[in-house]
Amino acid sequence: MTKTLVDVDDDLLADVMAKSGAKTKKQAINEALSFYAKAQDKSPEEAWRDLFAMADEGLIDLESLEASEG
Predict the structure, then answer these.
(1) Phi-psi region of 58 (alpha: psi -120 to 50; beta: other; left: phi over 0)
(2) Which of 23, 47, 48 is CA-nearest to residue 35?
(3) 28, 17 in Cβ contact below 8 A?
């Protein structure tokens, strides 16, 4: 593992920590990087399936997404 000094948005980091349950900044950043990398490897079908699964779990509101488009 490499030690790197970076500037991180404090509010965004706090949001990631709250949503992921990460106990440390390091854990939150590594989880976010892993999540992003895995998302990039998904097919469009898998991404849609995940989106609908998150909606079913109440994590996102698809209707509010539609309203913000138009």
Answers:
(1) left
(2) 47
(3) yes
Number of neighbouring beta carbons within 10 Å of residue 16: 19
Q: Find the helix or strand (DSSP H, E) in which 32 lies.
A: helix 25-40
28 and 11 in contact (C-beta within 8 Å)? no
pTM of the complete model: 0.63
E strand or H helix at 58: none
| Tens digit of pLDDT at every position of the chain (70 positions) | 889 999 999 999 999 999 889 999 999 999 999 988 998 999 999 989 988 888 888 877 888 776 655 5
